[in-house]
Amino acid sequence: MLIDPHSLETNLGRIEEIEKASMRLVVHAIYDFRETAAQIFASEIDKAQDKAEDITREALDVMGVSRIPTRLFGKIDYKRSRYVFHPDYALKQALLVDSKAEKGADVARIQLAQTSMRIMLRSGDRVTNEQGTLPAILTAGGEQFLTTTIFVKYDYKDVTEERHELRNIVIAALPSGLLQPRYNPNAEETIWNVGPHSPARGEDFRVRLSFAKLRQKARWRIQTIPPAPAAFTWEDVVIHPATP
What we know:
CATH class: Alpha Beta
Largest sheet: 6 strands, mixed
Low-confidence stretches: none
Distance between the termini: 24 Å
Shape: globular
């Protein structure tokens, strides 16, 4: 009745399909909540990052998703083990949605624990080759789940020290590590920018996910929700080669 997540290792198109459907769910939840999100940023006295995390959780709780009673762990704000239902199949998924409150810049800062991809990029003479530590297929409670990771970035500006204006919300569907050949096969063909960490200061490795580079691969993976009442249009162009 349920497909084995490992069977998707040879069916990359199906992984894309599952991630796209999950992206639509998250985008719709945040879109429906955008007016409340703007009010929270403008009026609540809290750190911008705390506001972002609360908004994402509330928006997805209001939307509602199927639930599997298996607890997930990791450095992600919203974690849900759930079923994905499709006319041709069903499977178990670990849906991970992380919130980031960052001013401007067409990037999101990512930790190794937040991705199952191998991070390969070249910056001048320096080549980065680091394996993300999040499993592409996660085992929890004796069950296996296809891991799907989505980032919600709240772009804001300061009004006062405690109040902020929400400028827009960018949602990014980070590809599964199983899709490595399509999105980051080598250091030259990459979706990453050099991270903000400092090895000299002993800081943990971080990398920047480039929205522009990911958008070039598959435009639907980056969606920008403007403040109400501006219209939102779903971007839907796939450019990467149709590998099997």
